[in-house]
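Tokens for ABC transmembrane type-1 domain-containing protein. Go.
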Amino acid sequence: MLLMFFGFIGAVLDGFTDRLPLYFTSHMINSIGNASKLDPDVLRQRLNKNAVGILYGAGVSLVACFLEGYCWTRTGERQAARMRIKMLSVKRFCGT
């Protein structure tokens, strides 16, 4: 049950992190579009802030994808093992 919970959390975070690069990239493009009104140091600061946001989003995405894949794979393996045991016990009982 715990594996399914963590797999679900990983899947939800994975779904949210798909949109993060678009969010930060749009802010970077808006900053570049307003570059004529901004001081170059302010522009560089805004671009760096958004670049760090993309890196943090990539880190969260890495952890979420690993958590999702690992937990759901382990859950599937355990369920397959249970079904295999039940199938073998039924075959042994029926004598075929």
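Residues 2-94 form one domain.
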